[in-house]
Specification:
It contains twelve helices and eight strands. It has 343 residues and is α+β, with helices and mostly antiparallel strands. Among the domains are: 171 residues; 65 residues, Nuclear Transport Factor 2, Chain: A (Roll), CATH 3.10.450.
Length: 343
């Protein structure tokens, strides 16, 4: 049985090695996606905090003055006082100092980290890449379980640094694998859950005895020429609807549409937030409010699974753990291939 498991482990590892390296490397970067983007674009990302920020109307006026032909579609508010606002238009992403109204810069390209993100999710290959990544998660789970089975008889946890080349990589493979097993096992399971969410999400709701919230946001028709409320008023309404949650994004409505405001509670460390409020752009009525605190039990399980996988669950400490575990998966793949090559 040991020899059978060893050969299966080897064959699956050789087939999946390149994908494990890609997923581990991109995953290590994605844990700090926002931070990396800001560090590589400091002139547009950071501002000096001041006591009061401008209203969204004043910020919109500054953008319209600088880009008179652009239509503003929404605002990305700052997650902290020293980070700038991003105003999305139909042509550009405009970074604005929310305290002074200064235009810090314009970006109309796709950020590098966005490519890294899509490479991790679907290898930049659409649905086919998405399916490959999902099944590579299953392969990774098989490698982890069989790896522990193969490690168990000798239980090697030390690296003999002056050993022969093959023995050295064998020790590295064994020691790094067992020390990171628990972290990689959790990352792999949560990744599989995300990859097969069309199956796992209904399963979570069934197990929790809940139903997902159906978005049914339709603003009633309004008379031609009726005045819309502004974005600042919509933000006030959203804050009142979900007390204690901080707005992150606000999408401006089309005619006869609704404002969409994404918010985040202090315990929710995901960059995009898990709470949403839809506000009628004419009457200010709340058409729908979705709170991460009161979501259906199945939805909360889905959100928790994602927060664990991305490292958002405990903020920076868990991001560091996820990033390091992802890098160790790369080491596992490389050391395994080197063992095979040298033997």
């Amino acid at each position: 049985m040991h020899n059978v498991i060893l050969k299966l482990h080897l064959w699956v590892a050789l087939a999946a090695a390149a994908f494990v390296i890609i997923l581990g490397g991109t995953g290590a970067l994605m844990a700090f996606e926002d931070q990396i983007d800001r560090v590589t674009h400091p002139h547009t990302s950071y501002v000096t905090p001041q006591p009061h920020a401008l209203s969204l109307a004043e910020i919109a006026d500054a953008v319209k003055k600088a880009f008179p032909g652009d239509r503003i579609g929404g605002f990305a508010l700052a997650p902290s006082d020293d980070v700038s606002y991003l105003v999305g238009t139909d042509k550009n992403g405009v970074y604005v100092n929310q305290y002074t109204g200064e235009i810090l810069g314009v970006r109309n390209d796709t950020p590098l980290m966005a490519y890294v993100h899509q490479f991790h999710l679907r290898l930049l290959a659409g649905k086919t890449g998405d399916r490959i990544v999902s099944w590579m998660g299953v392969a990774m789970l098989f490698l982890l379980v069989t790896g522990v089975y193969l490690w168990w008889p000798q239980k090697r946890v030390a690296v003999k640094w002056d050993a022969t080349s093959w023995r050295f990589w064998f020790d590295v493979h064994s020691a790094s694998g067992i020390f990171t097993f628990a972290f990689l096992f959790v990352l792999t399971l949560t990744g599989i859950s995300i990859g097969f969410e069309q199956v796992t999400t209904p399963l979570y709701h069934k197990l929790a005895g809940s139903e997902p919230v159906r978005q049914n946001v339709k603003a009633p028709p309004h008379a031609p020429g009726a005045a819309q409320i502004d974005a600042d008023r919509a933000l006030e309404i959203a804050r009142t609807a979900l007390p204690g949650a901080s707005p992150l994004f606000i999408t401006l409505p089309r005619p006869q549409g609704a404002y969409r405001i994404a918010l985040r509670y202090p315990e929710d460390r995901t960059p995009g937030g898990r709470s949403r409020v839809f506000v009628d752009s004419y009457t200010g009525a709340v058409l729908q409010a979705e709170s991460s605190r009161t979501d259906a039990a199945g939805t909360r399980i889905v959100n928790l699974n994602r927060a664990i996988h991305t490292g958002d669950i405990f903020g920076m400490p868990s991001k560091i753990v996820v990033s390091l575990a992802s890098l160790f998966s790369v080491l596992q793949a490389v050391s395994g291939v080197l063992m095979w090559w040298k033997k």
